[in-house]
Structure formats: C-alpha cells, structure tokens
Amino acid sequence: MDMHKRSEEVDTRLSTSDRILDITCKVCGDFSSRKHYNIYACDGCAGFYKRTIRRNRLYICKAKDLKCCIIDKTRKNQCRACRMMKCKKVGMNIDAIQHERDPRNLPLHVDLAISNLSSQITQGHRIFFILIIQVSFDLFQSYYC
C-alpha cells in the first residue's frame, strides 16, 4: 500500500511541474520555463534582452521607425528594435541582469607559449597576443568541437 501511495505522490508532482510549461513568454508567446528578468520569458527572448543590454545595442525598426512589427514565436527575429521595445513594454527589468563573468583561463599550452615569449615582447604586445590566441582558440573550438 505504501508503494501505491508513493507512486501517486510522484504522479502529482510531475503533473504540477508540467503546468509550468504552459506559461507563455510575455514577449513572443513561445513556451517559458521560468521567470527571466522579472517576467515569464522564453530563453531566446531572455538571451536577446541580456545581450542587447550588455552590449549597449541600439536597433532601428525594419518598418522605417513605425515600430509596429509583429513579435511572435515565428517572427521575433525579424525586427530587433520592436522586439527590444516589447521586452521593455512587458516589464523586463534591466537591473536584474547580472554582470558578465570574467573570461575563461587560457589552456596551459597557450599560457606557457605566451610566458616563453614574454621576455621578448612588451606588455602591450602580450595583451594583444593573448586576445588573438583566445579568439583563435574559441573559433577553433566552435568549429571543430
């Protein structure tokens, strides 16, 4: 009898968590898994909002500043200006965006190569080389991994 009760409890918990998936994104109407920046939003709209704020992006409406573009699940990527305007209109909170983390550490072999060169180059050159190597490493990983 205890086993039967436990399985009923598990079923109840599963059905309650499934209800969370019924909540739609306030920006585009896609499925929302949780709150992002104080509103229920899909991961796509949350990521778009975060990147726009962090990078200080300003967008121009595709409809020549009419700001009347339809932002829904299928057309949310067509006009960034109207999407951002809708993010603000539905209440996404700019203060809820966390600061960006520090960049990842360089792999050991890259760090050793740089330290071997450091006696021959200035500090400015070293920073420049670190940036080039990091970008090259990221591109390599995204392409081959």
Automatic annotation (TrEMBL):
Keyword terms of this UniProt record: DNA-binding, Metal-binding, Nucleus, Receptor, Transcription, Transcription regulation, Zinc, Zinc-finger
Broad class of the protein's primary localization: nucleus
Residues in Nuclear receptor domain copies: 22-99
InterPro entries listed in its UniProt record: Nuclear_hormone_rcpt_NR2 (IPR050274), Znf_hrmn_rcpt (IPR001628), Znf_NHR/GATA (IPR013088)
DNA-binding is among the record's keywords: yes
Protein name: Nuclear receptor subfamily 2 group E member 1-like
Subcellular location: Nucleus
SUPFAM superfamilies linked: Glucocorticoid receptor-like (DNA-binding domain)
Alphabetical list of Pfam families matching this protein: zf-C4
Species in which this protein is naturally found: Nicrophorus vespilloides (Boreal carrion beetle)
